Amino acid sequence: MLGGIAVLTLAGILVKAIGLFYKIPLTYLLGDEGLGYFNAAYTIYAWLYMLSTAGLPIAVSILISEARAREQANQVARTVRLTGRWLFAIGSVTSVALLLLAGPLARILGTQDAAYTIAAIAPTLLFVCVTSHFRGVFQGYQNMVPTAVSQLIEAFGKLGIGMGLAYLGWQRGLGLPVVSALAVLGVTLGTALGTLYLAVRYAVAKRRGELAVGQAEEVEHIKIGRRLWAIALPITVSASVMSLTGLIDLGMVIRRLGNAGFTVGQATALYGNYTTLVVPMFHLPSVLISPIATGIVPALSAAYSAGSREEAAVILGGAYRVSALLGMPCAVGIAFFAKPILALLYPAASVESAYTLLVLIAPAIYFVSVLTVSNAALQGAGNARLPMVSMVAGAVVKIAVGYVLLGHPAVAMRGAPIGTALCYAVALVIDLSLVLFRLGYTPSLGAVIVKPLLSSLLSIGPCALLYYRVLGELSPHLGVLICIALAVILYFLVSLSCGLVRQEDLGGVLAHFKRKRRQGQP
Questions:
Q1: Considering the chain, what is the average pLDDT of its residues?
Q2: Which of 36, 294, 339, 483 shows a CA-CA span of 20 to 30 A to 131?
Q3: Are 342 and 403 in contact (CB under 8 A)?
Q4: Collapsing DSSP states into helix, strand and coil, what is residue 218?
Q5: Do 118 and 105 contact (CB within 8 A), yes or no?
Q6: Which residues contact residue 443 at a Cβ distance below 8 angstroms, ignoring those fewer than 6 apart?
Q7: What is the pLDDT, as a whole number, of residue 452?
Q8: Is there a single domain that holds both residue 108 and residue 240?
Q9: Are residues 457 and 378 both part of a single domain?
């Protein structure tokens, strides 16, 4: 499990790095207003993306893991075939619908010029659905490499094609809405390339016998279909709730800022600044946490199917510990270094508006890290409906707090990150209660809160002091890089000394890669 997580984590780090190379020049090219158009389309896409793909790929991996644990090859085959058809149909419908509704959606959101970017991103939904099907199949076999490679292909396509098209449009003097649409088109084409790779990889794996799926005709597909949708629908609803609140934010932020005295142009610029500088930085640590959730769902499902609650407890303990180990220092580090990190990447004028918002949203990074594992634990244990409760409760808090604070002139844009932090705090408390009562498991307080927090403060605090008192005055950009690198080293050593990082963790990852090399796999 740790080996698969490591593969996805390495790929995710590279994808995020490529994303920065994409977003940073795009910030200079489009400005805050152009990014407002870009992010309007991307917010709509993100919600439909979640709606289309959140549940079925996880359900596929769960059913395949269960069938493999019981040595039911025919059930694996039927699951693969059914989900392939359904995801293709869902992707086709959502792509066409988004394309046809691009204009009306832009008018509803109060940004008519965003219609071009919405239309440009519409075909991506079809490719994403097909991609998710193949990823779910490979993850069911606990093979994370195809998923990682496809993510890299998508990222490189977005960077090369998107930036190339946007630059050409800018050189020809096209308006900001059109240039933004050309940048978004890179996302569509990059996703198409990732889909093509997975289709070829799947065909090769079947021919080599890596995916033993049996004969689909010998299995009752109605029973499998019911089980699949029973898992997929609750996961889809719970996962899409936060994307839906992001979509609500898009309309609410601009309109409520208008009530606070801002013009439409000013409100769009503030929204573009927040969604381009703050939100990506808030989501950046998820590259370390999402692979944990992806890895434990099939592993937990197999453990519970085999009746091994002891193994399930070991998996849960490791997942919670690693999520806190990674999430806590990210939250503390971003809170301490918000301004210098943003200044390293973005224009100074944009940073001044954004860094306080990043400080306010930083605690939510830790909440999301542990919440992600809790949701995956409930899903892997066959309680896929329960995360809906916590996510809906959190979404209600986010909307209510955001609505009140955004319309208050003294708070204004700061209401968005405050609402987000409170949202995930409430969702986490509810989720941990559900894990306790339904799974009979309580994460260790020391491993999940006390040790990560103390280790973070002991390692990041002195480095922040060194930056603001010495290195920041001498060389702000180089100084923050040195201090972050030093904090990482110190945190690893402190975590190793207090037992947060264990030698068997490192040994397990190394053993995974050695085994893959012996098997001739990348």
A1: 80
A2: 36
A3: no
A4: helix
A5: yes
A6: 316, 317, 320, 370, 432, 435
A7: 92
A8: yes
A9: no
Spatial distance between the Cα atoms of 251 and 293, rounded to a whole number of angstroms? 31
pLDDT score of 428: 92
Of the pLDDT bands very low, low, confident and very high (cuts 50, 70, 90), residue 441 is: confident
Indicate whether 274 and 332 sit together in one domain.
yes
Please identify, among 423, 443, 463, the residue that sits at the C-terminal boundary of a domain.
443
Residue 168 tokens, joined: 């050409």
Handedness of CA 460, 465, 470, 473 (dihedral sign): positive
d(CA 115, CA 105): 7
Query: What pLDDT digit, counting tens, does each position of 352-391 carry?
Result: 888 999 999 999 999 999 998 888 888 878 777 788 888 8
- Asked whether residue 221 falls in the same domain as residue 316, the answer is yes
- What are the φ and ψ backbone dihedral angles of 381, each rounded to 5 degrees? -90, 5
pLDDT-above-90 percentage for the chain: 16
Q: How many angstroms separate the CA atoms of 12 and 148, rounded?
A: 7
Tell me which residue has tokens 């080996």: 3
Q: How far apart are CA 486 and CA 483, in angstroms?
A: 5
Contact 492, 501 (CB under 8 A): yes
Which of 305, 299, 294, 371 has its CA nearest to residue 136?
294
Provide DSSP, 32-90. HHHHHHHHHHHHHHHHHHHHHHSHHHHHHHHHHHHHHHTT-HHHHHHHHHHHHHHHHHH
Distance of CA 82 to CAs 78, 94, 109, 229, 334, Å? 6, 18, 36, 11, 43
Interval 212-246: pLDDT, tens: 555 544 455 667 677 777 777 777 776 666 666 66
Of 385, 416, 443, which marks where a domain is finished? 443
Q: Which two tokens stand for residue 297?
A: 């769902």
Do residue 461 and residue 340 come from a single domain? no
Q: Which residues contact 249 (CB under 8 A, 6 or more apart)?
A: 43, 402, 416
Domain that holds residue 268: 2-443
Closest to 268 in 3D by CA, of 117, 120, 413, 420: 413
* Amino acid identity at 288: L
Tokens (6 digits) for 50: 């979640």
Rounded Cα–Cα distance for residues 431 and 139 (Å): 25
Q: How far apart are CA 451 and CA 463, in angstroms?
A: 19
What would the pLDDT profile of 144-178 be if each residue is shown by its tens digit?
Answer: 788 888 888 888 887 788 888 888 888 887 877 78
Write out pLDDT tens, residues 302-352.
777 777 778 888 888 888 888 899 999 999 999 999 999 988 878 787 888
Size of the chain, expressed as the number of residues it contains: 522
